[in-house]
Task: structure prediction
Amino acid sequence: MPLRHVAAARPHAPEAQVRKRRVRTAAPPYDCAMGLHDDAAYLALRTHDARFDGRLFVGVTSTGIYCRPTCRVRTPLRRNCRFFANAAGAERAGFRPCLRCRPELAPGLSFADSSQVLAQHAARRIEQAARSGTALRLSELAARLGVTDRHLRRIFQQAHGVSPMDYLSTQRLLLAKQLLTDTALPVTQVALASGHTSLRRFNAAFAQRYRMSPSALRQQAAPARAREAALPLRLAYRPPYDIDGVLRFLKQRALPGVESVDALELRRTLAGNSAMAIIQRHSTRAAGSRGVFEGDTTRDRLREVQKPRSGTP
Result:
């Protein structure tokens, strides 16, 4: 019998036997954008931790519903949970909101929080304007946020206890205080960099708020001879910070002639138009709840750190 007749006479197998099974890809256990591990997220759900309310949403695959971590329903199994940083991510994944815990009432999403969020946005805009030294009008700020001047002043006063212009004045004076303490800029440049258009008004506001003149603060914070010898650098950090471990790591990998680690002092040279040494050392002084790293750049230290090496251009 020809082969074509054999093939034709062979009975067809059922479709279920020849069809390939569909490959099911497992969904990720948590939203990677949230930055929270699934173990910690599930623990917050199981303990109904209110600190994560509004920052964590749980989608249950067995019901297709997403809840807040404070929802008082029976805790679902971990394998049925998916975690999201916001409600939009949960709904994009196909979950619908819970009717009992009502995710729309989570902190930051409810209508009662809209004024608080608006005041926070206004404060951030004011801080950005103060840091950049640019002029800021209340009418322009209110127009950017989509509200009137009167409404912005009212909700800002309720949220922060001060008016927007007082808040802006405080941010500018704090920036000026930092520049007077940590840099050698003239007082006139400090006033302009902090957003003050008049030196006379800057001196008057500074004296009224801090009970001293800008020049008096500079004399108390950093003597003139120290500023001439070095360019200070102060970096704040929040403890806990493993200073000893970091210094051991840097000491084991220090480049000869370029880096040097001794006790709580780190020295490093940088090449540029003119060679410069940066010495960083840990100080026991603290600014509030923060520690402080202090450093300086000096020519004398450069001679101690930088040593000629063979083959170095």
Q: What stands out?
A: Strands lie at 57-60, 65-67, 81-84, 96-97, 233-237, 259-262, 265-270, 276-287, 290-296. Residues 178 and 192 are 14 Å apart (CA to CA).
